[in-house]
Each structure stands twice: as C-alpha cells, then as structure tokens.
Write a structure and sequence with these properties.
464 residues; alpha/beta; Rossmann fold; 2 domains; 6-stranded parallel β-sheet; 12 strands; 46% helix; lipid metabolism
C-alpha cells in the first residue's frame, strides 16, 4: 500500500501538465532556442545506452527537428533508431549496455574508456544542450564529468537534461540520492506520476512528460471517440499469420528475452526449456522470438535457435507495427522484466514476467529493494496482476504451468486486460484530453511525451 499512496491514484498528478502548457504559451527570459538562433543551429549532444533509450532518443530527436526554428545537429551515442534521425554514434551503443552490478565488473575498463571518449567528444561538439536517456550509471558520470570539465576551464556549461528519472522509489535510500543530482543535472524528464513532485521536493528541477509507451497509442487512436484509458494498439493477426505461413490452430507464444546480451544469454535457455515442456500439451506450438536491435543479441539468438525445441520465428526489433502484429497473433507472452510488460498491456496480450541475474545482483535487489514487484504494471497497481517468476522461481518447471493456466483460464486473462485500462489512465492523465478539447492549437500528435520534452528543452530558461 505504500507505493499506492505514493502514486496517488487520482487527479493530483495532472497539475504538472497544466503548468507545462502554460509555460509554453508564455515563456519569459532567454530560451535554448534563442541561443541556437544566435548560432544559426541547435547542437544537441544525446546519449542512450539501451534499446528502450534508443527509441526514446529517436522520438525526441524527431520532435526537436520538427519544432526547432533552426537546423538541428546531433552528436553522441545511440542505436539504429537514433541513427535514422541523423545521429552518427561515436561507437556502438552496445558497448555501454550493461545491466546489473556484478555483471559490470568485466566491462569496467571498457566502460571507463568509453566514458572518457564521450566526455571529450561532447566538449569538442560545443552543444547548446546535452541529453542523456536512462542508463543512469553511464549518464550521470557523463554529466558530472562534463560539468566539471566546463567549470575547470571557466566556461558556461550547456544545459543538461536527463530523460527518465532514476527509480528512487524502488530502493531504500533512493530519494536521498536525488539531492546531489542537481549539481550536474538541470532538469529531469519524469515518465511516471508524482516523480516530478518528489524530485522537486529534493531540489531537482523536473517535468512529468508522460510515459514513452504512450507514443505507441497516440497516433493509432487519435480521433477515436473513446477515452484514452480505453486506447489500445491493434495488430493485424491475419496478415501476420498469412505472411509467416502459420497454420490455423497453431498456438503462438511471443517470447521477449530482453535487449542486453547478458540478460538474453541468461533468459533464452530458460525460455527454450519452457517451450520443451509445453510442446507435450500443445502439439501445434510455435514461438515468436522478438529480437532486440542489438547486434550482439541478434548474433547470439541466430546461433542458438537451430536447437530450438519447437518451430520458431525470429522477429527483428525496431518496427512497432511488426511487433504489435505478432502480439495480436499470439495467445500469451513470456517476457524478461522491462518496458515490454507495458507494451503487452497496450496490446491486451496476457503475459508472464520472468527475471534472473547474477546471484550477487539478486541478493542486492532483495536487500535494497523496498517494493514487492519487479514489473511496472504490478508496481503501478500495487497488485500481482501479471504473474512474476523471479530469481530461483524463474525455472521452466515453474513457467510452463503459469503459461498453461494463462492460456486456459479466462479469469487471469481478463484481469490483465482490465488492468491495462487502469495503467493507461495513470500514464496518460485525463487532463491532457481536456486540454486538447479546450485549446484548438493542440493536436493529438503534439501531445506525446517526446513533444513535451522537446518543447521543454527549446523553452528552457537558465536560472543561474
């Protein structure tokens, strides 16, 4: 109940949007866009270290290009999606994509070298704005060293934004760590309700922009005569089955083993053995493995699936339409912990969340975590709506019965579908719909988290 109280499942979190829109309409002082106009271009140094961050970063880049009145140029680190928006990454994003504490140790030296390279590149680029997306281990070190670099040279630092507030609410002592961030982070973009309020109470400027997952539902649902909480992403089941020659009557299970190599190598064998157990109950069984756009992950999965126990289809990442088409053709999903649990909720596809890590990392999580769940839908609702198989419970003999129950039992399936509406209501405050109706200048495509973040960047006023 502690977490439920913290998020206040009511309309209190909506006030941030009203303040934000009023800020757009009347913004005093010298904004970032004014500084860019003086130089004839806006230079943005942007860094993402995960596939989810690559998606967030690419959408932010597109919004900045769309709304900035001068040419926008980017430098930094990102993946394939950010490269399509014009980023020539300093090095492959996978070089800094490491999850966990003990898992980082073998990569520590390379991590330091890439950090040094990134700081130097950022300084040479002379950006007006620096944006880091999630990956707080790398991001905060980068921002801290870059701010110190400018200070030592007696230069005015660019504005620092961090997109996705650290999950302070999940860890003991997490809120206290926010106080020191204000020294090198000018503003945080929060994706969950009430994060803005807590950040500001700890001296860290913040703006609630909404969860990035909302980007997937704004466009396909704009203009529909339904409330946002009823929005969903509809895939084309028949087209997907037809194009991939999936026989009628085949039970399709979507498998999402993660986006980082170390988690995929840990989770995929567990998923394979789970499929081995299930094929006894489902003779016509097929698995669709969603492959993250990570070159190391792609190579690993391609090499191991030739031993897969049931027919398998590899689905390349990076295409929301293809992903949601596969979801619509699936009966259930089995996924590693991450943003994908929310994506499955938007598609109304029931799922099981699984998670394993190095035993020392698992011990640290048990010791430091102050919440009962690991998947965001369960955290937001303070209820085990989505079954979780964590740590030593994450075994094929545990997962197979959970999936069978989800396939055959309508009760848990319907419970997850109903929960999806509650989650969207939390992540997309109803006041945004009211603003759309009241202000003719606003349109659905403009009410996305990336647009709100881009507008905040362009109109940000330095107080120092």
């Amino acid at each position: 109940m502690l977490f439920r109280k913290q998020w206040k499942l009511d309309n209190d979190s909506n006030v941030g949007f009203s303040r934000l829109w009023r800020r757009y309409i009347s913004m005093p002082g010298r904004a970032v866009v004014d500084m860019a106009a003086k130089d004839g271009e806006l230079r943005v140094f942007i860094v993402a270290g995960e596939v989810s961050g690559d998606s967030i970063g690419s959408r932010l880049m597109a919004s900045l290009k769309k709304h900035c009145s001068v040419p926008t140029h980017f430098s930094g680190v990102g993946g394939s999606m950010m490269s399509r928006q014009g980023l020539n990454s300093l090095f492959p994003m996978e070089h800094i994509s490491v999850m966990g504490i003990w898992e980082l140790l073998p990569h520590l030296n390379n991590f330091r070298l890439k950090l040094k390279e990134t700081v130097e590149a950022a300084f040479l680029f002379q950006p007006h704005v620096v944006v880091t997306v999630d990956s707080k281990g790398f991001s905060f070190r980068l921002l801290k060293q870059l701010r110190a670099n400018y200070s030592q040279r007696g230069l005015v630092s660019p504005v620092h934004f961090h997109y996705v507030a650290p999950s302070f609410w999940a860890w003991r002592g997490g809120e206290a760590r926010l106080k020191g961030l204000a020294e090198f982070v000018d503003q945080v973009f929060c994706i969950l309700p009430n994060e803005e309020e807590v950040c500001k109470s700890n001296g860290l400027d913040a703006t609630f922009v909404g969860h990035p997952i909302l980007e997937d539902i704004v466009y396909p649902n704009s203009g529909k005569d339904v409330s946002p909480c009823e929005w969903k992403v509809d895939g084309d089941c028949e087209d997907f089955r037809s194009k991939n020659a999936i026989p009628a009557g085949t039970t399709v299970i979507s498998l999402l083993p993660g986006s980082r190599l170390q988690e995929v190598t840990r989770m995929l064998p567990i998923f394979a053995n789970t499929m081995e157990l299930l094929k006894e109950s489902f003779p016509e069984l097929m698995s669709v493995i969603h492959v993250a756009p990570n070159q190391h992950v792609e190579k690993y999965i391609t090499e191991v699936v030739h031993k897969w126990p049931v027919p398998v289809l590899l689905l390349p990442g990076g295409s929301p339409k293809l992903k949601y088409d596969a979801f619509s053709a699936s009966r259930v999903a089995l996924c590693a912990s991450g943003t994908v649990a929310l994506e499955l909720q938007l598609a109304r596809l029931p799922c099981i969340v699984a998670y394993r890590a190095h035993f020392l990392t698992e011990w640290f999580i048990r010791y430091k975590a102050k919440i009962s769940y690991i998947s965001l839908p369960n955290i937001l609702l303070d209820s085990a709506v989505i079954p979780e198989a964590l740590f030593e419970e994450c075994t094929p003999t545990k997962l197979a019965p959970l999936l069978m129950k989800l396939i055959h039992d309508r009760g848990p399936r319907e419970e997850q579908i109903i929960a999806a509406e509650k989650i969207i209501r939390l992540l997309y405050p109803s006041e945004m719909t009211n603003l759309l109706q009241q202000d003719s200048r606003l349109r659905f495509p403009d009410c996305t988290p990336s647009m709100i973040a881009a507008s905040t960047i362009l109109h940000y006023v330095k107080s120092r």
